[in-house]
């Protein structure tokens, strides 16, 4: 059994990290979480890449990374510079592009977790 939580981090956005509450002792967590980020513009959404990561909460040691996804347009570039974090896979890009093309509409996806976020 895990005690998971997930976090949302925007690269290059100082202090813009959020995490959910820990769900204790489950192997099938569900979160109904709305992530609010102030000052987001369409340009920031197109040039950015939120990393959604899932962790197992450990009381006595460091939290254990379970997996994550990176939502972006998959160009390899942000604001004209080559960056490692704009590496969205097909399903991640499709999800993000749909959100960009149809804002203010509720969407739900199931995406496979990456085993690493390097």
Name the features:
2 helices; 118 residues; two-stranded antiparallel sheet
Radius of gyration from the alpha-carbon trace, in angstroms: 15 Å
How does the helix and strand content classify structurally?
alpha+beta
How large is the count of helical segments?
A: 2
What do the pLDDT scores average to? 90
Strand order of the largest sheet: 2-1-3-4
Strand content: 15-25%
From the spread of the alpha carbons, the general shape counts as: globular
Uncertain stretches: none
Helix content: 10-25%
DSSP E strands, number: 6
Q: What string, H for helix and E for strand, traces the elements in order?
A: EEHEEEEH
Distance between the ends: 26 Å
Outline the biggest β-sheet.
4 strands, antiparallel
Provide a short characterization of the protein structure.
The chain is built from two helices and six strands.
Q: What does this protein structure show overall?
A:
With 118 residues, the chain is an alpha+beta fold. Helix content is 15%, strand content 22%. It is built from 2 helices and 6 strands. The strands form 2 sheets. It has a 4-stranded antiparallel sheet, with no helix packed on it. The chain has a two-stranded antiparallel sheet with strand order 5-6. Strand 1 (4-9) and strand 2 (17-19) form a beta hairpin. The protein is globular and about 40 Å long.
